[in-house]
Amino acid sequence: MEMKVATAVACRDCALYQTAKVLGLETPDCSSLNRVVLRDHPVEKNEVLYREGDSFRYLYLVHSGSCISSATILGRKSQVMGFHLPGELAGIENIGQQKCNHTTRVLEKGSVCQLDFLMLEETLGKDELIRVQSYLLGASAIHARQLQWERSLTGLQTAEQRVAAFLLNLAGRFESHGFPAQKFRLPMSRDAIADYLGLAMETVIRTLKNLHKKELISTQAKNIEILNPTALNALLRS
Amino acid sequence: MEMKVATAVACRDCALYQTAKVLGLETPDCSSLNRVVLRDHPVEKNEVLYREGDSFRYLYLVHSGSCISSATILGRKSQVMGFHLPGELAGIENIGQQKCNHTTRVLEKGSVCQLDFLMLEETLGKDELIRVQSYLLGASAIHARQLQWERSLTGLQTAEQRVAAFLLNLAGRFESHGFPAQKFRLPMSRDAIADYLGLAMETVIRTLKNLHKKELISTQAKNIEILNPTALNALLRS
DNA sequence: ATGCAAATCTGATCCAGATCAACAGTTGCC
DNA sequence: GGCAACTGTTGATCTGGATCAGATTTGCAT
Fold this sequence. Notes:
The structure is a homodimer.
Chain A: H1 15-22, H2 31-36, E1 37-43, E2 48-50, E3 58-73, E4 76-84, E5 89-90, E6 103-116, H3 117-122, H4 126-151, H5 159-176, E7 183-185, H6 190-197, H7 201-213, E8 217-220, E9 223-226, H8 229-237
Antiparallel strand pairs in A: 1-6, 2-6, 3-4, 3-5, 3-6, 7-9, 8-9
The structure holds a DNA duplex.
């Protein structure tokens, strides 16, 4: 059977729109807003939003679809650094840097809003600059929290714990953007999950199967249902 | 034989002093500076700088000695999140948060400078606010880079790679603060390294021994000498 | 110096997960 | 519609590192 869930954030819930409002760009005629924000730009699967080494210019808000970031680091050809779900920003990791340090590409086709930083800075008074900086500090803090969460995956010994933590993190993020937390579709391949968690793909597959068998979750291809979040959480504590 | 190395940054090299200068607090009589910065405050081993849940107020610059940060996260009682060497800031991870999300304690006795954020904000004009925010964005970016580096440890398969990466990271940080990169003293226990890297203490010990046997490094208790940085780096690429 | 507690090291065992290999299912493309 | 390429799944094997149990060293306090 097919699971149907909402797949896009409403414009009023879009973080970039909120941002633009906060930044004082929401003039009645939307002229300032439209100079800086490109709304609802469609993107195709595998399209690259920005590449490692590009000079940093845009912040992206995933409106529908999803994205994956990867980076060349510590001598590995490429390591999956994170995923961007509908309602989330991509590119925050570049704040305060000259160049992009991730490559971010589209995982599932959809649309993004794009905020142009160069354009933004051109037309900035002192008060606006203060607001922008405040906002960026907040965004950086949110990003740092997710990074710290990911960093703490290192401390989880078993594959089961890592996969459980991953599913709960996704669930929480979906929920905080207005999607159901119990039932969702994984935007990424098993391979990408494995890379993200530092496991082999086979281990991810077997672990998901095992959690299914234990009736903590239900999996059918990319469709996930979390049946027992409490027990899932308890796994992390053992 | 005893290895002697410098163990404290000079005041003029202290990041907080630089910071204060950048922020325009370096009046001839140091009155503004002294209101906001507590210079060279001695700290004892195991002293807590700030605790998880405390409201965020101070940024610390490790002048001499060293610190360790840990946090309760993902259901673990405590996970080592990072180390703060002489010349480095502690507390940046709290920027943009109300409450501290790490507990940071002194690993080796020494002294710290302390920057009071509350006091700072009280006496801030627009221009100063802009400078402070700029500085904080830069500091956050540096912190995020280290976090990303740590996050990518997840992708390293073997204990040897993780330990090698750890030693090279420490070496680079020592060097960038004016200390020798090849020869230094580990401020932390094997246990803390293990926790930080997500390994068992015994594995860390054996791996260090093994790297010694291969003559890539030389270890004598907490004294480390990196004999072949190139080969050490090459380990990460295999 | 001396002694004691904490930190470090060594050895032995065992198992979770990596790796290899073969195959099935899916998607998209001519 | 059918082939190619990717993605997912299962089974079998093997090894690196966790775990447990001790021995030894280090460094601090007196």
